[in-house]
Amino acid sequence: MPGKNIRDLHGQPLIAYSIAQARKSGLFDLIYVSSDDEDILSVAARFGADEVIRRPDELANDHAPKIPAIRHAMIEAEGRFGRECDIVVDLDATSPLRSVDDIVASVNSLVVSGASNLFSVTPSRKSPYFNMVELGEGGVPHLSKTLGQQVVRRQDSPKCFDINGSVYVWTRKALLENDLLFLENTQVHVMPEERSVDIDTQLDFLIVERLMSLPQAG
């Protein structure tokens, strides 16, 4: 979906929802938006970002990993702000259904647990122990994960979660020293399915649009 981050969603560009949630949380000294797209940066500035950061081309192509781009934004923000960050939070623009409470709870969990980083998840609709399939040699299907004995009911399989792409939290040290998301003391914040739609396709956008029109949304 080209241009999805600034596509109109119920009268506002998509990215405006994440900026507003960050502001409403009261947690942040400054709210930065990082992008290689000048239109996104311009919209972000109009809708409440304190600063915008032009992402380098090498961190903005289709093969660039996410964490180095966030680390670049942190270092750039520290240079402009004149002091080091304690905690860095990434709120993806494509997850407007998160609540402010999700942001606050995620940061509080990191602080209380002493974790290096935390990310949000939602219960998986499919289990790798029961109905997620990989194709092996010759295209032969097999379960993605197995246990000592075969799982015959999904309810008997271990609890599994999907990363929902909504909230990521790091200590400064963890973000500086790691390119991986899963560290020795990583924590998660569990969110319900109805707040966990990450807009990647037109169908995702339509689902979010519909959910936000319901009386209980927001």
How does the overall form come out from the CA principal axes?
globular
Order of helices and strands: EEHEHEHEHEEEEHEH
Largest sheet report: 4 strands, mixed
CATH architecture: Alpha-Beta Complex
Quantity of strands, as a count? 10
The number of helical elements comes to 6
- How far is it from the N-terminal to the C-terminal residue, by CA? 24 Å
Helix content: 25-40%
CATH class: Alpha Beta
Our estimate of the beta-strand percent is 15-25%
Look at the structure and name the CATH superfamily: Spore Coat Polysaccharide Biosynthesis Protein SpsA, Chain A
Mean pLDDT: 94
The CATH topology corresponds to: Spore Coat Polysaccharide Biosynthesis Protein SpsA, Chain A
Tell me the count of domains: 1
- Give me the side-by-side strand order of the main sheet: 5-9-6-10
Query: Unreliable segments (pLDDT under 50, ≥5 consecutive)?
Result: none
Counting helices, strands and paired strands, the structural category is alpha/beta
Q: What does the radius of gyration come to? A: 19 Å
How is this structure best described in words?
GO terms for molecular function: nucleotidyltransferase activity. Keywords: Nucleotidyltransferase, Transferase. This is Acylneuraminate cytidylyltransferase family protein. This protein has 218 residues and is of the alpha/beta class. It has one domain (4-124, 160-211): Alpha-Beta Complex (Spore Coat Polysaccharide Biosynthesis Protein SpsA, Chain A), CATH 3.90.550. 32% of the residues lie in helices and 21% in strands. It has six helices and ten strands. It has helices spanning 14-25, 38-46, 66-81, 100-113, 172-177, 202-213; strands at 8-9, 12-13, 32-35, 51-54, 87-91, 117-123, 133-135, 141-143, 161-171, 187-190. The strands form four sheets. The protein has a four-stranded mixed beta sheet. The protein is globular.
